[in-house]
Amino acid sequence: MSLKARIAKSIVMSKIKYIREDPDTRLPEILDSARKIDRTGRFDSAFDTLEPIAKDRNNNWNRMVRSLLAETDPVCLEKLIGNLAINTELSSLHIRERAMKKYGCNIPWAILMDPTAACNLHCIGCWASEYQKTANMDFDLLDRIITEGKKLGIYMYIYSGGEPLVRKADLFRLAQKHSDCYFLAFSNATMVDEAFAEESARVGNFALAISIEGFEEETDMRRGKGTYAKVIAAMDILKARGIPFGFSACYHRYNTDVVGSESFVDFMVEKGARFGWYFTYMPLGRDAKTDLLATPDQREYMYRKVREYRETKPIFVLDFWNDGEYVKGCIAGGKSYLHINAAGDVEPCAFIHYSNANIHNMSLIDTLRQPLFREYAAGQPFNENHVRPCPLLDNPEKLRGMVERSGAHSTQLLDEEDVVSLTAKCEDAANNWSARADTLWKERNEEKARQEAERAARNAARQGAKNKKTEEEIYQP
Fold this sequence. Notes:
- The protein has 477 residues and is of the alpha/beta class.
- It folds into two domains: 3-71, no CATH class; 106-410, TIM Barrel, CATH 3.20.20.
- Helices cover 53% and strands 10% of the residues.
- The protein has 19 helices and eleven strands.
- Strands 7-6-5-4-3-2-1-8-9 form a nine-stranded mixed beta sheet. Strands 10-11 form a two-stranded antiparallel ribbon.
- Helix 8 links the parallel strand 2 (156-159) and strand 3 (182-187).
- Helix 8 (168-177) packs parallel to helix 9 (194-203).
């Protein structure tokens, strides 16, 4: 990190400490000062969004920020803001941009990787079950990936599996060695205990997205009897210690009304979750249960509920598919992230099990330039309607063409599912969603046009007031 970046980070952290002592008074104060500094009005729209939040104690984002500042372990809070907010985005952006120009390929914001394919649970419909259970990436290989990634400007690393906490000793060791990065693990949380919480507080830059399927009935149905009780116990341990965490929920035909419900989200807030990450079921593997696929009604339900909760609940929720509009479609293939499975295969996405490259015998940058990733870069976005972002679930013909043109091979060692068979399972779902998604996209674009007109009117009024004040100062006798 450059000296300029370190100075900026130090200033930001001092302001956070200042705000934490009296957020009700000092958060609006900081924003007012920042707006005065922005004489060009370049960030007026951002201030217009943030100022009402800062001044309204009942606003859901205000409540979330105050709770986070008051209840988070100090070391974890410093790493959350310094590493996640500053290092992974602001300080490293120019490094990624230079690397993209130099190498002529996408450089992701984050890398998702599987330390192991082993897991202590056997969840129905889990895509990880298609990999060889004995596959592992050792500490040195994980360390090399992170080291090479940082040179490209990548400071965010996410673990999946298998169950990542099978390797928790190595993961804490990596977090300590790369203390300028931020790490997140998708975990079933059944291995979380007091000792785990202590280690999390010590390193500060390692958090969990805890998998849960709803309440006890829904969770134990897919994950096994007794799993729900262990998940709730883990959340209680982390909350008591001030360790940030979130929930991860897969919605499907039989649990969408539960995981998308207000009662469930309220319960997650009560348990201490700071974010919620929704995924929809994908039919991976020849024996995948296609009846689990969410219906168009259920997907629209989640689309509307997630947006509602972002306006009303003190928790940040997002939907990996339905939020495509905010990232301009699909983010895979190195555009914003990639996936490295436990065997080392570098895949475009956790749900797309095809590859031309393996990290064991290639550098990270060379895997980013593999034929399949170039196909992704050339094809993104896969649909101008960003509520239909996915090349498998929403546009299966796009994935089929990319895999065939690139010559990528299946990485599913158990059945090596061919892309024609895989995409055929998503044809009906894609066709059924198409008309509904087009209606939502039209509705959203009309809403954005109204918001933009309102913003332009506010800016014009503000500029008029500034001009009038300037004239009065000039002509004052």
